[in-house]
Amino acid sequence: MSFGGNVSEIQFATPQTVKEAVKCLAGAKGRAKVLAGGTDLLVQLRAGMVRPALIVDIKHIPELSAVKREDGGFRVGAAVSGAELGANKAFRKAWPGVLEGLELIGSTQIQGRASLGGNLCNGSPAADSVPGLIAAGATCKIAGPKGTREAKVEDVVAGPGKTTLKPGEFVVSFFLPKRPKHAGDAYLRMIPRTEMDIAVVGAAVSLEFDAKGVCTDARVSLGAVAPKALLVKAAGKALVGSKLDDDALEAMAAACRAACNPIDDKRGTIEYRTKVAGVLAKRAARIALERAQA
Ligand SMILES: Cc1cc2nc3c(=O)[nH]c(=O)nc-3n(C[C@H](O)[C@H](O)[C@H](O)COP(=O)(O)OP(=O)(O)OC[C@H]3O[C@@H](n4cnc5c(N)ncnc54)[C@H](O)[C@@H]3O)c2cc1C
Predict the structure, then answer these.
(1) From the CA of 246, how far away is ligand 1's center (Å)?
(2) Deepest of 138, 146, 148, 171, by most Cβ within 10 A of its Cβ?
(3) pTM higher than 0.85 for the full model?
(4) Distance (Å) from CA 119 to ligand 1 centroid
C-alpha cells in the first residue's frame, strides 16, 4: 500500500495494555495517532492528510475488544467493530438504534473493521453511530497520562476532525446504561444516494415510558446539521409527559429544526437539512415508540 510519502518514517506500536498504550502516546516524539479499524485513518494517510510520527494500534488490548455486562448495562470496547457488536443478541435487543447507526457505516467489509471509538474520534459531524450513542446517554472511559476519566459522548467531539481528548489520551470503552422495561431507541439517516454516502441528516431518539404509556424520559440527537452531533434537550423535553401524540411530536420536530446550524453544500441546502431533521426525528421517535411497546 502506498501512503504517498516515506512510510518507513512512521513508527508503529502494538501495546498489549491500556497503560502501555498511554505510555506510547504520551512519549511519542511528534504527532501520535491511534489506530482502530483504520477505515478513516488509512484513507487519510494515503491522501497525505495526516502524517503522524507514531501509529498506536489499540486492537491488541483485550479491554478494547470486549463487550461485557456492567451494572445491568453494557461496556463496549472502543475498538469493537460494528460486525462484532451486531452479533451480540442482548445488545441488539437493548439498543437496536445504536446498532442501526453502526450498521449504516459503509459496506459489509467496512463494518468488519469500523469501530465506535474510531467513528467518534474521527470527529465527522455526520458520523452515523454518534447520535445513537448520545441519545442512549452513553459515556466513555478515557485513559491518559493522568489516569482514567469518564466523559459524556456528546462532550468528546469539539468540531469537524477535532476532539476534546488531551495529549496522550484515548477512548478505552463506552458504557450504555441499563434499559428499563418500556424503552426503545432508533436511528435514521438521510443520504442523497442509495449506497455508501455521508448523512445529510441523522436523527436518533431514545425513549422510556411508564406502565401507562406516558413518556418519562426522552433524548434526541441530530447528526450532520451542526459542526458536531447535537443533544437537543428541548426536543426530548417536548416528548416527556406525552404519549407521543401529534402535538408532542411536532413540538419535538420544531425544537430539532431550531437547533440546526448546518452547512450548505452539494448534498443539501440549509433549508433542506433543517426541514429533514424534524421529519427524521419524528419518524425515529415513532419507531422508538413501537420498539418500547413490543
Ligand atoms: C468506504 C467507506 C465508507 C464509509 N461510510 C461511512 C458511513 O456511512 N458512515 C460513517 O459514519 N462513516 C463512514 N466511513 C468512515 C469510517 O468507516 C467510520 O468513521 C469508522 O467508524 C471509523 O472507525 P475505525 O475503527 O476504522 O477508525 P480508525 O480509522 O482506526 O480511526 C479514526 C480516527 O479516530 C482515531 N481513533 C480511533 N480509535 C480511537 C480511540 N479509541 N481513541 C482515540 N482516538 C481514536 C484515530 O486516530 C483516527 O483519527 C466510511 C469509510 C469508508 C472507507
Answers:
(1) 37
(2) 171
(3) yes
(4) 4
